[in-house]
Fold this sequence. Notes:
By secondary structure, the chain is of the alpha+beta class. It is built from 10 helices and 10 strands. The strands form 3 sheets. Strands 1-2-3-5-4 form a 5-stranded antiparallel sheet, covered by helices on one side. A 3-stranded antiparallel sheet has the order 6-8-9.
Amino acid sequence: MQHIDWIAEGNSAHVYLDDNKIYKRFKPPISLDTARHEAKKQQLAHAAGLPVPDVYEVFDAEGYAVLVMEYVPGLSIGQLALREPGRLAEYIDRSIQLQLAIHQIVHIEIESMVERLHSQIKRAPRLNEYEKNRLVTRMESFQFVSRLCHGDFHLHNLIQTETGISIIDWMDASLGDAHADICRTYLLYLEKYPELAESYISRYCEKSETSRDEVLKWLPILAAARLSESVDSNQSNYLYALCTSS
């Protein structure tokens, strides 16, 4: 990995470009096994026919886990929306079309959303045992058809290329309720862009004939799970209020 160009940094990794390949170097304490886990999810999504960059390899580089994948040139839909705010509704609609395509996939061997959320809620630092158990019990009472869910679906994880839109960052993918995946996207928008969040959920529910209540019943559970992630104090206070308000 010599003479490579840094192109981006996220919460979990630095991203580099070399020889027309993307090198995603994870930050500690993310392990090689975790990187392999993400690679497998991305490979499964790619094999299912979704517009997803192909995965080439995963290796260790001086203690850092590195995921190598196909380079997809272009800007994120989020970047385009910031440049052209008048086209935001169009970009939201295009993202919804892709998310609907993801949710059409039901036969895929990937981790359970319920098990993933259960683990995250149990690690949430702000919640006491009663609050955690109450949310887990509520989640386990939900009935749904399991579908592929991205888990971190938002405009900045969609890359506009010359031929279409590519979906990146599959670390949080799971098999679970599509309503929860919609709610997760809504929550991510709600923290910083409440108007975008409202536009997104309204347009998704309209286009898919989805019940808004069926989506929002997941909000306290997903807010609790998000508390286990790297969030600042303001986000933590906001999420805690969401997951204990009902």
